[in-house]
Amino acid sequence: MMIYIDKNKLTVGDKLPNETELSKTLNVGRSTLREAVKILSFSNVLDVRHGSGTYIKNTTASTFSNTQLLDAREMLEVKAVDLIIKNGYQTEDMLQLKEILYERNTLLADGKFSAYVTADLQFHYKMIEMSHNPFLIRWYQEIQTDLSAYLSTQILHLESYSDNTLIHNELYHALLNLDRSTAIKNIKLNNINDLAVDA
Amino acid sequence: MMIYIDKNKLTVGDKLPNETELSKTLNVGRSTLREAVKILSFSNVLDVRHGSGTYIKNTTASTFSNTQLLDAREMLEVKAVDLIIKNGYQTEDMLQLKEILYERNTLLADGKFSAYVTADLQFHYKMIEMSHNPFLIRWYQEIQTDLSAYLSTQILHLESYSDNTLIHNELYHALLNLDRSTAIKNIKLNNINDLAVDA
What we know:
homodimer, Four Helix Bundle (Hemerythrin (Met), subunit A), 2 domains, two-stranded antiparallel sheet, 71% helix, elongated, DNA binding (chains A, B), DNA-binding transcription factor activity (chains A, B)
């Protein structure tokens, strides 16, 4: 249903087709459709006006603060660490993570800040991928452009990135050794570090 | 960019317009656009073929297991609890949560299983809303239809739901008292409970 709304470029205020039509288009039964409409109306996505029809009330998150963005990132990363520790990892994946880490640290040391931001995001994304959870992967993809914009701004204000590199090295070693508490500690440190510049 | 892909109904294999055109459509500078393309190509969303153009490689998560769905749910709920405990809550919100809980428990006790699933989802969604984080709210909306389908199937196999009601009552009281560890404990118990039926 959410995908239908997106695909059909429906925005706030638009009216949904009637039940018969929608059930045909989405290829689902009427009871399933009614259930979905009920849920989305509770979630403030749809507005069911009796005798008039069903309208779009809200679509996606439009505005957010940096704290909310970093909270969402931290949530995805902590869960990814949990899943990696729980399910283990492939040597090939860990090798790639190490390569990206090396590139990230080198770019930073060389003052190639723009390429560094991309490599830094790659490192975090590789970690999310290693969770093998499609929801985490998709949601991290969704915020990557916003994270990139945020991190780029942060660099302008920072004097030294040595703490940052240390945090990433420790995070890598904690994952390698399946050491959950050290991994989580460094993810939280990284978050605090990124937010600190904001204050 | 992800929204552009969705809105324009682009699917796997489709070619993106060239840089000039895309930069005009999205109303962003070329360097921002290049950065976004780079990131999305690392994330396996886009495939940049030199001399040919940029193509869509992957869009959204298509298949997932029940464990992956419940892992994603647990992640969102744990973070919501963290944020509620950290930022506090409005009395009005907690009052609504209590009303929904009462309705949920009554429907279950009365054997109105279909309406119960909706009320149960409402309870969890209300908790997510109380986090006031737009990412958590949007992502929970995205999985609600799948969760509803999953929970409906689970009911068919369950004999007694008393543990389940107890878990939800305890979760409510823990939120009311800003008791993080009890709240998290009950969220995890609920997850285990919902998955157990699967085995």
